[in-house]
Automatic annotation (TrEMBL):
Localization annotation: Bacterial flagellum basal body; Cell outer membrane
Entries under Pfam families matching the protein: FlgH
Name of the protein: Flagellar L-ring protein
UniProt superkingdom: Bacteria
GO MF: cytoskeletal motor activity
Keywords associated with the record: Bacterial flagellum, Cell outer membrane, Cell projection, Cilium, Flagellum, Membrane, Signal
InterPro entries: Flag_Lring
Function according to Swiss-Prot or TrEMBL: Assembles around the rod to form the L-ring and probably protects the motor/basal body from shearing forces during rotation.
One record GO biological process: bacterial-type flagellum-dependent cell motility
GO CC, alphabetical: bacterial-type flagellum basal body, distal rod, L ring; cell outer membrane
Family: Belongs to the FlgH family.
Organism: Sporomusa termitida
Main location per the UniProt record: other
Amino acid sequence: MGKLIGFLLLLLVMTQPVPPVQANSLWLDSGPTASLFSDFRAHAVGDIITIVISESSSASRIGNASNSKSASTSLDAGVGLLTFIEPVSGGSSDSFKAQGSVANSNRVTGRITVKVTEIKPNGLLVVSGTQSIKQLSDEQKITVTGLVRPEDVTADNTVLSSNVADAQLKIEGKGPLASKQKQGILTQIFNFIF
């Protein structure tokens, strides 16, 4: 009888529905640890990219201009009825000479993190970002905008500034130091007039 009850209990346990088994992982199923082989380079609106700025430019120009002109004329003494005319001679000369030179050299290095603001139909990423540094009363603002190809973005989400198309890099400053580097109003007026 005891064996029969044990058998019935075993049969009862075996016929009960078994809940599905779920295996839980120690790792997150989403986010930066989803897979060792995931690609986390920027590819969507709102993603961020660090632009490594390394730009240098130089230009020089030398201009020389000169011209000169001279003329001379003479009139002999009059003869016959025109003896009252005395011999006359004259001359004129004109000369112009100008020299000028311009030399300009710029170098900008740094890193600025920008945000993807739009994705073009051809896949190009429109990026834009601003970095503002304020020290005492002076503020320096760096703004970068441009287009980036997704394949130019490296695995660590950086891109060289030379790979940014239609790049616009603006560096603006305001404060006491920046204002001292500008010409005064009277100097600007005199330069405009003269």
